[in-house]
Amino acid sequence: MTELTSSTETPRRIVVAGGGPAAHRFADAMHARGLDGWDVTVLTEEAHLPYDRVALSKALTDTGVDLTLGTATMWEHGSLTLKTGERVVKVNAGAKTVETAAGHTYEYDELVVATGSDAVRLPIPGAGHAHVYRTLEDVWAINKAVADLTAKLGRKINAVTIGGGLLGLESAAGTEQLGATPVVINGAPWLMNTQLDEGAGQALGRLIEAKGFEVHGGVFPSEILTDDDGQVTGVLMADDRIIPADLVIVAVGVRPRDELFRAADGEDQLFSLGQRGGVVINDYCATEVPGIWAIGEVANFGGMCLGLVAPANTMAEIVADRLHGGDATFPGFDTATKLKLSGVDVASFGDAFARTEHALEIVYADPARGVYQKIVTTDDAKTLLGGIFVGDASPYMSLRPLLGRELPAEPGAFLSAAGGGEAPETELPDDATLCSCNNVTAGSIRDAINGCGACDGNAPVQELGELKGCTRAGTQCGSCVPMLKKLLETELTKSGVEVSKALCEHIELSRQELFDAIRVLGLTSFEEIMAKYGTGAGCDICKPTIANILASQNSAYVLDAGRGTLQDTNDRALANMQKDGTYSVVPRIAGGEITPKKLGVIAAVAEKYGLYTKITGGQRIDMFGARLEQLPEIWKELVDAGFESGQAYGKSLRTVKSCVGSTWCRFGVQDSVAMAIQLELRYRGLRSPHKLKMGVSGCARECAEARGKDVGVIATADGWNLYVGGNGGATPAHAQLLAKDLDDETLIKYIDRYFMYYIRTADRLQRTARWQEELDGGIKHVEDVVVKDTLGIAEELEAAMAKHVDTYVDEWADTLKDPERLRRFRSFVNAPDQKDDSITFVPDERGQMRPATAEEKGKVLIGASIPVRSATTETPGNEA
Q1: Average pLDDT over residues 852-873
Q2: Among residues 392, 374, 393, 394, which one has the least CA distance to residue 384?
Q3: CA separation (Å) from 85 to 47, 167, 199, 257?
Q4: Residue 829 banded pLDDT, cuts 50, 70, 90
Q5: What is the tens place of the pLDDT at every residue in 108-153?
């Protein structure tokens, strides 16, 4: 074996062939251990600094995103050199040199090969017209192709991804975000078959199909079809079906780039290669040739090459350790996987397929919801061996660090989807691996937090960003960040340190602090707020939060003055997007009371535009199936008839549900309908941290289910009882009694105070029930502030609500008055008159229309021209 001690007089030369994440991690590991006596040269064929391939999907949807790993300043070290555009093409092991395609020769004492892998290309006709998904250039090309084809064809394009694994699904999700219709072809019967069993794969398939993805499984493509100009038109399958396509991406796997280890004709083969490629390494990442190491995807260990970041990082650290005289060894591959695909959680780790002898599988499956959770243990149900989660992967964070350990509770307690709530609280042992990407243990993180030598100067770490930089935990795939944050907060609390409530990495203030700052200073724009309290361009946490705060303090049109770009999809469209890309229209029906004439208007609109109608649990009428460009037309008819927006899309008041009350009901003791209407018209449009629901019951029989609402009002013989902090949802809570036997004026005054105090002090996306639970003192604190005015802010809260009431305007009525605002409601920016014909419906068995399934789209021509027929007549309905 090569002598590994170094000398400061004659630096030993290390050449790294490759410039991907593994090469970067090796250079970083050498830099961290000290480069005295070493000279490291990294040769990369790409034009970029090493970048994060795990986050490649970000560059697919945002070509300007910076994925550079680490800091560029690392490469300024005198003993560390990065040369871009230098592809190593030959290794001369005897002479200890490498040659590059540019004709340069580099001498080495130690050679670290980190050439990674190439995307596999399909050996079928037409494959040259497909894109692959591997490098920045690849995803930039896909981004451009989607934009160019959409503009050229004047419609939503079909983007077909061949491959239903990790990369394939990421690719398909990216094309969907770019505005294409995502289609996935997978040769295996179910998606992600390498990581998921059949039940999990089928659950994932159902979930992403519900998101608008079209999935074809269990059959392979045989040809990519094109027209005479070379434009892709479809994919011919082995069963002779043709799947329409405008763009094809191949993501069926990777192949190790091991050509440097393959002997040329007439030369001796010096290196052992795996059956499926890759150079064979030992347990400290050395090849058979002294002085030559291999790390990352090109390295074959135990008969496997694996394209995951965690083992690549571990290999890089091992080689750096060995070169510095250490004795680290490679423990084997960690195959844990977690991703969020279009809002769908997927996770797999350990012995997910229960291949261990006598392994026990504890499974919860709900096909209707697309949820699948499985925990694999030893036969005594005590030691965790692995798991799979689809649809709800919340237990993964708690379980992943416990792999190979005894569970702290019964396995079923971790199956959150089965109704067990959140996973049991787990105190991770110090030697448990919290971040598998960078092999960081819980003990190392605790050391950094408590200032026990993990970082220079032994200073305690109290910020998440600083903790990530110090330990590297959470800096790559990011799946461990929630657990990292939780551990940080737990350790700081133990030490008596106040835990940071920063809104996000761009804003150090909590939502409450930010709300007060904006209110006191009268700030009115995102730019002003970021200039004073933020850094960077913001993110999907702080942008909508700031938009919400501005809307709750000012009743100005929510999409004006640049605020439109801060909102989420529903707020930008002033409507709720449905799974097929259409929108629902929900006019306000205050208190559930509506005249026959207005009912007739809703019926006429629904009939004219072919909309599906449904009475909601909040006593309103939902109309589904409206295309984006139809929304202004529909709302003009509704506004002209006296309707206004029901704001079903906003974090604001949804409905005030009521029973019939004393006007008609023989049991009613107060006029619940009149009170419900008064409350709904008062608080309509009120933006808040989360949606708000109210209920008013005319007697103790509680027909309006008021105690299941954020604010519930129940009539008594002497007035009204006020309940606060209730909600349904995944974690139901009953509202608690705040005050009894109130007259109308006092009731409204207390509700004004309650809502405004909640809006000012709750965290983002925090329902009133959770907010009350976390207040110091709970309902007693609420009573002190709202009823007793112990903080002396009652008048201020009432004035803020009065301002909202006085300045309220209906968003849709305002939209219709301004042609510039109406420009938002176009399916295609470059073709304003083009309709989105990819949206298709079929009649259902109950006489209305519904979105077509993927199978129905493939069998018949379904589109905007198909009439919806009545269940009792043969008269065609209006075009959908």
Answers
A1: 44
A2: 374
A3: 6, 26, 46, 17
A4: very low
A5: 999 999 999 999 999 999 999 999 999 999 999 999 999 999 999 9
DSSP 260: G
User: Who contacts 622 (Cβ-Cβ below 8 Å, separation ≥6)?
Assistant: 584, 585, 586, 613, 614, 615, 616, 648
Place of tokens 């409905």: 655
- Distances, alpha carbon 515 to alpha carbons 33, 333, 512, 750, in Å: 45, 47, 5, 21
Residue 459: Cβ within 10 Å count:
12
Token couple for 879:
């075009």
Q: Per DSSP, which regions of 284-359 are E strands? A: 292-294, 299-300, 337-341, 344-350
Residue 413: phi and psi, rounded to 5, are -65, -20
Spatial distance between the Cα atoms of 217 and 191, rounded to a whole number of angstroms: 8
The structure tokens listed for 612 are 């599906």
Confidence of residue 1 (pLDDT cuts 50, 70, 90): very low
3-state SS, one letter per residue, for 444-486 = HHHHHHHCCCCCHHHCCCCCHHHHHHHHCCCCCCCCCHHHHHH
CA distance 325 to 257: 29
Structure tokens at 32: 């961290």
Neighbour tally for 442: CB within 10 Å: 22
> Cα dist. 498→133, 455, 663 in Å?
45, 21, 54
Residue type, 745: E
Count the neighbouring beta carbons within 10 Å of the beta carbon of residue 39. 18
**Parallel, antiparallel or unpaired: strands 583-585 and 621-626:** antiparallel
Tokens of 47: 């034009």
Three-class DSSP category at 82 = strand
Category of 553 on φ-ψ map: left (φ > 0), alpha (ψ -120 to 50) or beta: alpha
Q: What is the H or E stretch that residue 374 is in?
A: strand 371-377
C-alpha to C-alpha distance for 367 and 441, rounded to whole angstroms: 36
Q: Choose among 688, 701, 752: nearest CA to 724.
A: 752
Q: How far is CA 260 from CA 46, 48, 119, 273, 711, in A?
A: 17, 22, 17, 11, 69
Alpha-carbon torsion 20, 175, 828, 587, what sign? negative
Amino acid at 82: L
Say how far apart CA 722 and CA 742 lie, in whole Å: 8
**Nearest to residue 754, comparing CAs of 787, 790, 719?**
787
| Amino acid letter for position 350 | G
Q: Two tokens at 838?
A: 């990819």
* Cβ count within 10 A of residue 733: 19
Q: What is the helix (H) or strand (E) element at residue 222, kind and residue range? A: strand 221-226
Q: Which of 453, 388, 398, 454 is nearest to 422 (CA)?
A: 398
Task: Specify the higher pLDDT residue, 115 or 865.
Answer: 115
Q: Which residue has the tokens 């990294």?
A: 42
